[in-house]
Amino acid sequence: xxxxxxxxxxxxxxxxxxxxxxxxxxxxxxxxxxxxxxxxxxxxxxxxxxxxxxxxxxxxxxxxxxxxxxxxxxxxxxxxxxxxxxxxxxxxxxxxxxxxxxxxxxxxxxxxxxxxxxxxxxxxxxxxxxxxxxxxxxxxxxxxxxxxxxxxxxxxxxxxxxxxxxxxxxxxxxxxxxxxxxxxxxxxxxxxxxxxxxxxxxxxxxxxxxxxxxxxxxxxxxxxxxxxxxxxxxxxxxxxxxxxxxxxxxxxxxxxxxxxxxxxxxxxxxxxxx
Amino acid sequence: xxxxxxxxxxxxxxxxxxxxxxxxxxxxxxxxxxxxxxxxxxxxxxxxxxxxxxxxxxxxxxxxxxxxxxxxxxxxxxxxxxxxxxxxxxxxxxxxxxxxxxxxxxxxxxxxxxxxxxxxxxxxxxxxxxxxxxxxxxxxxxxxxxxxxxxxxxxxxxxxxxxxxxxxxxxxxxxxxxxxxxxxxxxxxxxxxxxxxxxxxxxxxxxxxxxxxxxxxxxxxxxxxxxxxxxxxxxxxxxxxxxxx
Lengths: 274, 245
Fold this sequence. Notes:
The complex is a heterodimer. By secondary structure, chain A is an all-alpha fold.
């Protein structure tokens, strides 16, 4: 309980828990659609948006979100309009955006007190009440959309053609999902940064996937894993003076490893015994 | 009267990038008659189904049902894609998948009604999968997966049923169940359209056939379509085995 007497620790913990929740929920959709790499691409692509928003004095969340959307559109354009496959398109777009972001931040950091490392790996101890408020708003939107569109998104992510054939607006659902992913990544930047956010999206969802067999169960259990990783990661970082983003990611990875080894249905060691 | 309740396809053409997949298809699909779409690999059988429903864009032509474009009446259609196109490791149970057939009828922002749940239970009984309600779909055999998809199409309460290769890689028992239900649907005046790869004995289950090879070779009663010269043209002399009528 000791760390909780500091208000910066209170803010960071709340932030980490919220991010753990929405990442697990949205990450479940990424996992079941085999879009893990798209999560990585979007997260790296938000960097120039952050930098430009910072230069213009605009809200950096908005800048990051816009950059994420533009990169997604570019990826789709390249893969639809040419014979370049989607994975190559992702690689090209996200590394270009990432490079632009690093270049911009390096240029502006001379005049401003900003640190590239904070963007890359997060700076959760620097979270302000405004950051927290923005994150809570984003989390509320994300969870509301997932709850309200649950049955449509389940159908769409399982069987796109079937969903299209009953007349569901599949392009809108796809766009909606991309928005959810973009919002979630933007909300997570302060906590883990652009490089490690993929872990919070995929690892708790994948851990849950090894243990349960329905999408909403996967989301609930994933949230549990994500929150547990967030809280223990923050405590580890406080007591052992570790960077908090990596500490959270490491805890999540250990939880995944345990599920991989001991899952009753799919565990590697479980099957060895049989 | 019959003309209105049939699907009228006129001059339908589909191109993928530079290649022509289907050209100048005009035909009628009648209700109450189990209709098979046959033809060699790459003949455009699945493409015809998808283009009819607007799942891929047609270059030209029209598909009418009750004198209106079919694509504007998708609530009347139950479409079952090829089983191999689906990721069966998706975290869902048999119940979840069959329930998807009720999503459109339920509508946005609403949860499934008692009636929907009742329809799902009945459909699972009808396809012989009532003991598998809570089974994860990844633990089903190919035939069981296909029956789950059949149940999903049944709960849609559709007038038009379209199946893409439902008999690929399934067991005999499932084949029998599926054909029984197809016949029942046709007997109650539904349109039942099935892409079928197999030209073996099972072909005699179909009353009408559509024989394709990027264009329409023949369509109509099975006896009239299963003519040697038509089949020779479609399969271009490759050896085919088919049942005698």
